[in-house]
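Sample entry (324 residues):
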Amino acid sequence: MGKKGNLMSVRHDIRVVDATIRDGGLVNNFYFDDEFIRDLYKANIDAGIDYMEFGYKASKELFDEKKFGKWKFCDEEAIRSIVGDNDTELKISVMADVGRTNYKRDFLPKSESVIDMVRVATYINTIPAAIEIAEHCHKLGYETTVNIMAISNAKESDMKQMLELLGESNVNAIYLVDSYGALYPEQIRELADLYLEYGEKYGKSIGIHAHNNQQLAFANTIEALGQGASYLDATMSSLGRGAGNCPMELLLGFLQNPKYNIVPVLRFIEKNIIKLREEGLMWGYDIQYLLTGRFNQHPSSAIAFTKAKRTDYAAFYSELLDKE
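Predicted structure, serialized as tokens:
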């Protein structure tokens, strides 16, 4: 497939999704104070961002409420305490993780909820369960996406079968997710072409969620964008698990659509993100995350390396080699 648009063009199909709370919550167990969330909400509105993902709809039977902040669960009243009835252009999103959500109990009908979109996170081997959740939420009146994690480990034959199933469903968008930050732009281009082939066949939008282990989250995001992906995930100052994500300030600086305004993002970073770093919260590119990305491995071992304040990178490299 050829590239869609150029550096001077405006694509009106683009939807920018702020995933700061949801992916950033994996760094601090979702303990953001209300001022941070309100500031982020206002920044997203003023910046013209299309969706704000508040966090997970996690099951309280599986996760202890005492060990997590409220954005692990995204109760309706918690979101409304920030947005009221959300009488704005910004849409509200939450994520439902396959096997970790009580979706039949915890989602209200859309007519009773301030949430607009439910994003279902799944691995390729749990696609049927993901479709079940997405269809349930579709019937309740929500927009839906299915985000297929760790796609760098999937076989092409499995991907085609997965995309066929998702194409036949009522899901609005299908996400390409580089969970391990292992993919290079050339690989993203090929995967985006495959996803877009099925997206065009079935009338589905395609999204991209990238991690920055090899400092390629932004490059991979705009590579997918150039091929035709339209749902673009980013986080403020790359705040996210491990190496973080595509930085919102880079993405908005790249997009030519005048509806997006980088200044509110910069002001939010000045006030809130610098403070998090000063308080000791750690995320972003570092050698240990580069190595797990290079070996296409889950970043859990790099996160443990970071928490242990290790700097023996060569020894860590050898440990990862042993896992191959």
